[in-house]
Structure formats: structure tokens, C-alpha cells
Design goal:
Strand order of the largest sheet of chain A: 2-9-8-7-6-3-4-5
Largest interface: A-B, 114 and 115 residues
Number of helices of chain A: 16
Strand content of chain A: 5-15%
Number of strands of chain A: 14
CATH superfamily of the largest domain in chain A: Type I PLP-dependent aspartate aminotransferase-like (Major domain)
Mean pLDDT of chain A: 91
Oligomer: homodimer
Low-confidence stretches of chain A: 1-25
CATH topology of the largest domain in chain A: Aspartate Aminotransferase, domain 2
Helix content of chain A: 40-55%
Number of domains of chain A: 2
């Protein structure tokens, strides 16, 4: 046990010197579950600590832009529910979540041609909890999870907790590499495929309809569920909406959704769409995990959604993020050396950069931070622990256009410096 | 898959009859993780469905009394944080939780002679999530958890999810049976002891200081952590506060706390107190589970706590619950047959009744519900699946004194009827 703690307990009137002495000899680490020893520490958590300074232009975050939060409308909604629903909004509630909120979500799916029963929707404490409940419900130690690579690090962390074995499949500019998918999809104990098909975190890549159909064809009839995680789907700046896997392979698709990117993240409100046999298990897992999602905030959010136009709010977000994405792409084209490649996101919050082979984005990070510009090196988005990658993630949602050009220009100078060293 | 779902997907433009046909032949159950197949379905969930009718006097709930919620003060706190902190309260936040809220909690422990560092406090999504994070962090399949019996069913459910093996120890009127504890505490792979030492759910029993010391002496130096779950500790109507296990065996005690019973439950705000080596693991588990607890509500709650007196609010709750507990005890003394025994709670929300041997509380429930009075049969509070128990839980927090007398009188008639059948 650490010594600070030790010192503090000295002051406790009932502390027992003997007990603590004998305790000190016990190896605490041996008491932890195997699952928790395996989980990678959050790399981004550590990086974000370095990048909070005001002087730094940070493309490292993964946050929505707080200037666009509908603060006043949420305050009005809060007052409305306090005044009209009173103490009921403060009591324990149902594990499934507030039914009118689930109906609202179902109605939005209906607009996209997806007929979802509100009973097949479970409100979760953010979509990260949706992942946790799916891990709890499906994964025995050693079960396989197919995951796009690079992929969402929160999913890598979560499935590591349940001691899944990852079957990474390369993410190409239009979606998964189908040849690689074919090689892994027949493996025994492969239960899930995890994908962010729209404006992926970290790459900004969107699957083409053809790739979606090819993925569905490969999995069709196999005992594998597709987890379609879609936090950014509403934030399309250009191009056409694609079919969901739920359109193409409905019985094998589980959807994850979230209000974190379209309304606000601090409420931690997301959802899972799953059919009844799965939902029955998810409800048991949800109840054991936290009984139910914060009910007051479900009521507040629902009130906001019925007394405001979510679509016109999303339109505002899309205009700002779209301009910023555009500014980032044109600055990259203007300043980055031609050897550097990058994705062209049609929505979401991220863009993915690939440096020439052998150029380490970790080394680039160390140099860039000295020039007051930050990003996330690609390492944590791979399932294998890598010493060095030549990839990096850039966020464009929280930096205005002027700062984006300034930051990309600074970054280009550091990249050129590294490339010259290499020559 | 269920047929309703099947029918609905017919309307989806991209639905593929072949894919669904082949999928239908897959045995979905074989895909679930072992852990989720073992978890008992919530019995109380089912019971509460029967007892929602207005005409029923329900002692079945486990809810705090919503008439006492500080609704107006919380609305004021909500407006204050919206107006003074603005969009910041709506953004993602730290996994650990809002520091001033953790300091507030630490200061309340200090008043009880417990010196807790705010860094040793993690804000959780209700104390149920505290349990989940501890299960994630400590329990490998088959590891032993010592648990008081009868014990909190949320803990039984949760540790079942992590496939723990339970070592139940009988809960006597002054705490655990020490002889039984001695028989199990040396068993290999015994990692945790779970206890609600103050006004336990379901029994209302409080451990005497002597029993606490005897438990601590037995575990002292053994590689076992005591999880002291204390949601009701502030709700003492009579008698003196007891020492916490954190006073007696500080290095081996992990505390769970909650604002659900002292402020409101819908916010889902609880906490864990653990020392650094454990906290490091809990933070990894928390981040993978839901990133962080609803930050807006943490801010709102903290504002409520600093601009109101929590103690004077708790005093109001204690006066009401104390009167209702008193009414229940005196009604039981007045109406129940002498062969029925019951606990005398000094706080909390529950009282535990033991019928003569061979009298089934499930059978009593079926008869009682016909007389419009409800309670929870003892079955779900045991780690073994029992067909029949002679015990039951009565809640007194949500029923006023007049209704309590009326309900206990009705219940006594049904008990007498069952006893007469038995003769």
C-alpha cells in the first residue's frame, strides 16, 4: 500500500499498528482479477494532460465543440420538467429507460427506413456502457471479436476487460478489407464484429454501400453479431447517407447510438437496439451494472427534444464542423509534404494522417508539442501494443478555421524537419 | 429470434429473406457469455409489477419517499449552475468525478473521524456501479466472496455476473456469525467480504461495535478486502453511531456510499473509497464502463450541497422514516401472532420478519396480494435458489403511519389464516 495512505491512517483513532504491519506484507497485485491486469492504460488520458495549456493548438481532443451546446434550451427544459413533473423525475426508475425517449429514438430510425420497436431500445449510460453491456452479455474469456484496424480505442479497452481475443481486419478507404474478413470470420468462437461505419473514430472513414453489402454477405448466417456503433452518423457534411447494417442484415445487427455528439456528452445518454432474446440478457446486465440510467437527465433531454428541433440544431453543428473539416483538408493540401497521405472525411470529427513509412508519430508528437501543436499518435488505435506507428489522428471539431490553418502549418514544419532527418 | 421482430423486418427495403432464414436456424442462446446465463432474474422487478396498483398498501418497494425530495432546492441549483458555469457543465469530464464533490464527501467522512483523501474517492453511477467496478477489478471466475445472509440482492446479482462463488455467513441480530466466518475466511481465493453493517437491506440489522471488531480481527492480515456498503448510514433514528470498518481495519476496507437515500436516487450518484493501488485499477474499469458519471448532475448536486444544509435535510427524512418505523414496529407488536419474530431497526428503510418454520412467505404473498397488501418474500436475499422461505422484507419509508397500521393489520389476518391452516 502506498505510504501517503499509511501516514493518513495513523491519525485514525482506531487504527491498529499490528494489522497494518501484517497487511503491508500482502502482495495487493495478486488480488486483482486477471481481466483488469490486461487492460491498456488510457494513452489519450495521458496525452490530454499535456495538451490542456491555452497556448497549444490541440487537434488531440475527441470532444464536441462546447460553443455549440444548446445551453439555454436545456436550462428551459430543466425548469419545465421540475415544474411540470416534480419529484417523480427524482425517483428510481425503470432499467429500460424512459419510454417516450425510446419512442423518440425509434421515430428517428423510422425516418431512415428502419422500423425499430421502442421495446428493442435500452437507454444506456453513454454508448460506452452499451459496449460494456455487450461485452458482459457475449464475451467469455478468449472469445474472438473482429474489429476494424485502426479502430475505436474505447472498444479495444472494453473488450480487453472481458479478455476477448481480437481479430483485427484492416480498414481501407471504403471499409473493411474483405479478403482479411473472410480469413477470420469462420474462426471458432467468433461472436462479434465491431464497426464504426460512418466517419469512424479515429479515421473519419465511411464504408461504401458496396463494402457494407460485402461485409453483410460474408457474415450472413454465421453466428456473429455486427455491432454498428454510430455516434457520428447524424453529422454528415457532404455526400449521401449510406444504408445501415440494420437495413442489410437486420437479424444480425446490434445498433449503438448516442446523444453525446448531437446534444451534449455530460448527460451520458446513449442506447442499444437489440432484438428480444438479446435484450432480455442486456437488461439483466444493465440492472447489475447501475440499475438504470440517470432518470432526471433522461426526462430533461426528452423535454429538450420535444420542444426544440434536433435537426435544426444538428444543422448548426454540421455547418461549423463541415467548415472546419474543409479548412483542415485544404490546409493539409497546402502545407503538408506530398509524401503524407490523409483521409477525406464526409462527416464526424476526425481525420487520419499517414506519414511515410519509418516516420514515428510519437517522435512527431514530442517535437510538435514544443511548437505548441498537439494530436494523438496512432498507437492506441491498434489492438497490438506498438512501439511506433506512422499514423496519427487529427480532431477538427474544437478548433476554429484560423487556428486550424495555423496549427496545420506548424505541424507541417515539424513533419518536414523529421522527413529531412530521415533523408 | 422472436416473430414480432421477424414481421417488422419484412418492411425493410433491404431485408433479405435468405439471410433471415439461415439465421433463424442458429441457436442464439449458445452465443451468450456463461456469466450472463447464471444471473438470477430480478425477482423484485417481477413483484413490483404486481404491486403498483393504487389500492394496494405496498411494503414491497425499496424506494426513498419522494414526498421528501428537495425538488425546489434542486431546481434552484440547476439554474445556478446553468447560469454560472454554462456550457462547461455539458462537456465530457474526468473519470474520477468532480473534485469539489469528492472534497465534500471527504469532509463529511472527516466529521466522523475518518481521514479520507479526495484522491481516494471515485464518483460512480450509483453505488450499484461501485459494486460492478469492484467485481470487474477483483473477481476471477470461481473466486470466493463472503456475504452476509440474508444479504443485498443487488450484490448477489452483481457478483453472480462475475461468476463468484458465494460463501454465505448467517447474519444475526448483532452482525455476522463469527464461528461461520472463521470456517470460510481461510479458504483459498477468498477475496472479498460484502457487508451492509448499518440498517442492512433486507433486514434492518446493525452490527454492534463488538461484532465489527470480531469480524475485523478474523480478517486482519488475510488477503481479503471488506466492502462496507453504507447507503443508509446517515438515516439513524435512534441509538449511537458505530465505528466503520474503515476505523477498525483501514487498509483492508473499501467503502461504498450513495446520495440516493439522502438526496435523490434518479441522479445515480454514488462513490467508492479505495487506496491508490486499487483506485488505479478501478479507474481503468470505470473508464471502460461509461467513461465518467453524468457530469452535469454532479455539478447540480454539488451546488445543492453547498447552498443547502444536507444535515437539516437528512433530519427531516429521519423524523418521517423514524415515525414510520415506530408505527410499523408497534403495529406488528399489536397485531402479529406471538410466533412471528421481527427485527427492530435503528435506521434505514427495512424491517425483517421471520414466520414460524414451515410457513412459506411466497404463499403468504399470494394471499396478501388478494387483500391488497404487498411485501417482498425472503427468497431473493439468499445466495441459494430457495423454493420457499419463512422470511420476508417490509419497507416503511414510503407508507404513512395510518396506512402502515392498516396494512400490518391486514397482513396479520393473512398470517393467522396460514398459521391456522398449518395446525
Amino acid at each position: 500500500m502506498n505510504s501517503t495512505k499509511q501516514d493518513k491512517t495513523e491519525t485514525s483513532s482506531e487504527s491498529n499498528e499490528d494489522s497494518r504491519s501484517s497487511w503491508r506484507t500482502i502482495e495487493t497485485n495478486s488480488l486483482f482479477a486477471d481481466r483488469i491486469s490486461d487492460v491498456p492504460k488510457s494513452f489519450i488520458r495521458e496525452i490530454l494532460k499535456v495538451t490542456v495549456s491555452e497556448s497549444i493548438i490541440s487537434f488531440a481532443g475527441g470532444l464536441p465543440n462546447r460553443d455549440l451546446f444548446p445551453t439555454k434550451a436545456l436550462q428551459d427544459a430543466s425548469n419545465f420538467v421540475f415544474e411540470n413533473a416534480g419529484s417523480e423525475i427524482l425517483q428510481y426508475s425503470t432499467t429500460e429507460g424512459y419510454l417516450p425517449l425510446r419512442k423518440f429514438i425509434a421515430e428517428r430510425y423510422a425516418l431512415r427506413g428502419l422500423e425499430i420497436n421502442p421495446e428493442d431500445i435500452l437507454i444506456t449510460t453513454g454508448s460506452q456502457q452499451g459496449l460494456d453491456l455487450l461485452g458482459k452479455t457475449f464475451i467469455n474469456e478468449g472469445d474472438n471479436v473482429i474489429i476494424e484496424e485502426p479502430g475505436y480505442l474505447g472498444a479495444i479497452q472494453l473488450f480487453s476487460v472481458y479478455r476477448a481475443t481480437f481479430l483485427p481486419v484492416a480498414l481501407e478507404n471504403d471499409g473493411l478489407n474483405i479478403e482479411q474478413l473472410k480469413q477470420v470470420s469462420g474462426k471458432k468462437n467468433t461472436k462479434l464484429l465491431y464497426t464504426v461505419p460512418n466517419f469512424s473514430n479515429p479515421t473519419g472513414i465511411t464504408y461504401s454501400t458496396e463494402k457494407r453489402k460485402a461485409v453483410a454477405e460474408e457474415l450472413n448466417g454465421k453466428p456473429i453479431f455486427i455491432i454498428e456503433d454510430d455516434p457520428y452518423g447524424d453529422l454528415r457534411y457532404k455526400g449521401e447517407n449510406q444504408l445501415s447494417f440494420k437495413h442489410i442484415l437486420p437479424e444480425q445487427t446490434i445498433l449503438l447510438g448516442s446523444f453525446s455528439k448531437t446534444v451534449v456528452p455530460s448527460f451520458r445518454i446513449g442506447w442499444i437496439v437489440a432484438s428480444k432474446p438479446i435484450m432480455d440478457k442486456l437488461l439483466v446486465a444493465k440492472q447489475a451494472s447501475d440499475l438504470h440510467t440517470n432518470y432526471f437527465t433522461q426526462r430533461l433531454l426528452h423535454q429538450f427534444l420535444v420542444s426544440n428541433s434536433l435537426d435544426s440544431h444538428i444543422k448548426t453543428i454540421k455547418e461549423v464542423y463541415g467548415r472546419q473539416a474543409e479548412a483542415m483538408v485544404s490546409s493539409i493540401k497546402k502545407y503538408f509534404p506530398a509524401e503524407v497521405s490523409f483521409t477525406l472525411p464526409e462527416g464526424g470529427m476526425f481525420l487520419w494522417v499517414t506519414l511515410p513509412k519509418g516516420i514515428s508519430s510519437m517522435k512527431l508528437f514530442d517535437l510538435a508539442i514544443k511548437e505548441d501543436v498537439a494530436f494523438v499518435p496512432g498507437n492506441p488505435f491498434y489492438t497490438q501494443k506498438l512501439e511506433s506507428t506512422n499514423t496519427l489522428r487529427l480532431n477538427f471539431s474544437c478548433v476554429d478555421e484560423k487556428k486550424i490553418e495555423e496549427g496545420i502549418k506548424k505541424l507541417s514544419l515539424v513533419i518536414k524537419k523529421l522527413l529531412n532527418e530521415k533523408l
